[in-house]
Amino acid sequence: MSRSLGAELPADLRDLLSQRDLPRLLGRGVPLITIDERGRPHPMLASYLELRAVDTHTLRVVVAGGSRTAANLDARSTAAILLIDEVRTVYVKCRAAAESLARGELARFTLCVEDVLEDSPAAWEVGLRITGGIAYAPPPALDAPTTRAILALLDA
User: Fold this and answer.
1) DSSP 8-state assignment for residue 125
2) With contact defined as beta carbons under 8 Å apart, do 90 and 51 qualify?
3) Chain mean position to CA 31
4) Dihedral through CA 26, CA 6, CA 36, CA 132, nearest 10?
5) pTM to 2 decimals?
6) Full DSSP string of 6-34
7) pLDDT tens, residue order, the chain (156 aa)
8) What is the phi/psi pair of residue 123, to 5°?
9) Among 7, 34, 5, 13, which Cα is nearest to 117's?
């Protein structure tokens, strides 16, 4: 069962998405859902490297410039970010701002937070818990050229 936390990131989520502790979060996946041209959900597996909270109302995301995700954000401006781990399950519903920024093969979108939903167990799920989030290996090196390009675009 989900309950709305409102149209802004709570302080702990803003901090999680701020990239202040990025090395600890490398290797963790973050599903990003957009809407395709047929109105269907289109998933993309992002990471904490590609997401940054600017403030409680604003996120930046970097994706491949020629990707379906970029086309979907350009055309329909709708996104949801799923933060799922052992601690909590949160869905962040967003609207992409009109402007995007492209550099080389990468595109940055500004996402405006519209609703933050926190999932909690239904009565029959009490005692059940998520035992791990989405993880990948090896995590990217912070000094790798692509990593530096993504971070620079998030800063721009």
Assistant:
1) G
2) no
3) 7
4) 30
5) 0.92
6) ESS--HHHHHHTTTTTHHHHTTBEEEEEE
7) 789 999 999 999 999 999 999 999 999 999 999 999 999 999 999 999 999 999 999 999 999 999 999 999 999 999 999 999 888 899 999 999 988 888 889 999 999 999 999 998 788 888 888 888 899 999 999 999 999 999 999 998
8) -55, -45
9) 5
- Could you give the 3-state DSSP secondary structure of residue 98? strand
Q: What type of residue is 34?
A: T
Both tokens of 75, joined, read 């055309």
Burial of 32 (0-12, 13-18, 19+ CB in 10 A): buried
- In the block, which residue shows the tokens 């933060």? 83
Cis peptide before 145 (omega within 30 of 0): no
Topology given in CATH for the domain delimited by 2-121+138-155: Pnp Oxidase; Chain A (2.30.110)
Which residue reads 């799922």 in tokens? 84
Q: What is the DSSP string of 104-124?
A: TTEEEEEEEEEEEEEE---GG
**Cβ contact 103:149 at 8 Å:** yes
